[in-house]
């Protein structure tokens, strides 16, 4: 492969906040040209979701929050007032030359401007139009707004996240990052890629993709949801305990906690040996995984008392030698100092228009033998307006100046 797979694909990103912008960002990572269309003067609401804010080269706050930075690399930003007929016309002209449009407006909002799927497919029958909303385009909740935490709650994710009832700190808990947004964004990306493939290999026609955060967050819970659907049993919260082979949880050492997972009987026996307690491998309470599941409270207490005598580095070294899946519970500074993370190049650096060289997360998708695209920092508001109007729509300087004077862009 000599070029990124989406080279030559143009994406119009009419979305804000997080879920849908993440989908557009993923397409940009894969080589697509992504044009982010924002409201003049204000832009994506996520830009203002701070502090903290990115600092410029003089150490002053910019308008760019980490929330915005996380979902907008490899894009160009232009400003267009969609409420103005002239702005709507500019979007339609861009649509005629684009492959994908991503939006996350409330259901029906873009129809007021003639920018809904049905209107735009008449202009460009090959357009892949992806709508990302909280509850989807249909159903009794379709018109309702919502954010990540709402969907973590309604999907049941919070009900299986956190410590059990009856212990200090027990109760439902959201995940730290906005995982409902992330998962919806990835499902949107998958849907768009599938629609592009179908269009270019079969029908030649576009599609309307309907992604809901609620749907996505339910489906993403995989085996937890499958447990309920298959058995009728509602899974309880188990803190750091895993869902398969045991032991599988965080164990406190003398200095910090480590995660240990024994996914097989052999790994359980090796774990006992590594701890210097081979007799626990034949303890009737723990001799099989089924027995360990039945006695999971005693299991945790027994091994927790042993690991508390260890320094974490020594225990992790012993577990690595024994081939036991394990690792430290890292904070972000420790994550990005980890030699494996550094080797994989998870953090990238790109020149930001205001802050200069700035670190971001890159895409985890790598194609063997081919370097990834040179990263573009998330754009400042309207950074590429003149460039896009000139290069894509062929407008000259006088035409662009007139649009600026009329506050259309």
Automatic annotation (TrEMBL):
Pfam family, one: CoA_transf_3
InterPro entries: CoA-transferase_III_domain, CoA-Trfase_fam_III, CoA-Trfase_III_dom3_sf, CoA-Trfase_III_dom_1_sf
GO function terms (MF aspect): CoA-transferase activity
Transmembrane segments: none
Coiled-coil ranges per UniProt: none
Protein keywords: Transferase
Protein name: L-carnitine dehydratase/bile acid-inducible protein F
The organism of origin for this protein: Hydrogenophaga intermedia
């Amino acid at each position: 492969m000599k070029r990124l797979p989406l080279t030559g694909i143009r994406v119009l990103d009419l979305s804000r906040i997080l879920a849908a912008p993440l989908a557009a960002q993923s397409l940009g990572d894969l080589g697509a040209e992504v044009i982010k269309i924002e409201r003049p003067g204000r832009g994506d609401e996520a830009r203002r979701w701070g502090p903290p804010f990115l600092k410029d080269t003089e150490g002053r706050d910019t308008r760019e929050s980490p929330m915005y930075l996380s979902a907008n690399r490899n894009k160009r930003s232009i400003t267009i007032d969609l409420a103005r007929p002239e702005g709507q016309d500019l979007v339609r002209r861009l649509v005629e030359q684009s492959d994908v449009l991503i939006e996350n407006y409330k259901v029906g909002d873009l129809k007021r401007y003639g920018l809904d799927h049905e209107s735009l497919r008449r202009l460009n029958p090959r357009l892949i139009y992806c709508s990302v909303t909280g509850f989807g385009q249909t159903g009794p909740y379709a018109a309702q707004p919502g954010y990540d935490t709402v969907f973590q709650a309604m999907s049941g994710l919070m009900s299986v996240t956190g410590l059990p009832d009856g212990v200090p700190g027990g109760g439902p808990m959201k995940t730290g990052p906005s995982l409902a947004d992330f998962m919806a964004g990835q499902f949107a990306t998958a849907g768009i890629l599938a629609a592009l493939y179908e269009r270019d290999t079969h029908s030649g026609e576009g599609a309307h993709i309907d992604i809901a955060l609620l749907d996505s967050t339910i489906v993403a819970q995989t085996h937890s949801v499958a447990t309920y659907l298959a058995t009728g049993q509602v899974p309880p919260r188990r803190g750091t305990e895993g869902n398969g082979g045991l032991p599988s949880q965080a164990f406190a050492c003398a200095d910090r906690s480590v995660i240990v997972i024994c996914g097989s009987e052999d790994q359980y026996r090796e774990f006992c040996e590594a701890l210097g307690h081979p007799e626990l491998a034949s303890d009737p309470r723990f001799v099989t995984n089924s027995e360990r599941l039945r006695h999971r409270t005693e299991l945790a207490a027994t091994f927790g008392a042993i690991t508390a005598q260890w320094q974490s580095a020594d225990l992790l070294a012993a577990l690595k030698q024994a081939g036991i899946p394990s690792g430290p519970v890292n904070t972000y500074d420790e994550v990005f100092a980890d030699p494996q993370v550094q080797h994989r190049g998870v953090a990238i650096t790109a020149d930001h228009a205001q802050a200069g060289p700035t670190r971001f997360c890159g895409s985890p998708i790598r194609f063997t033998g081919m370097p990834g695209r040179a990263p573009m920092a998330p754009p400042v508001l309207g950074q590429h307006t003149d460039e896009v109007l000139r290069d894509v729509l062929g407008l000259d300087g006088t035409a662009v100046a007139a649009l600026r004077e009329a506050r259309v862009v």
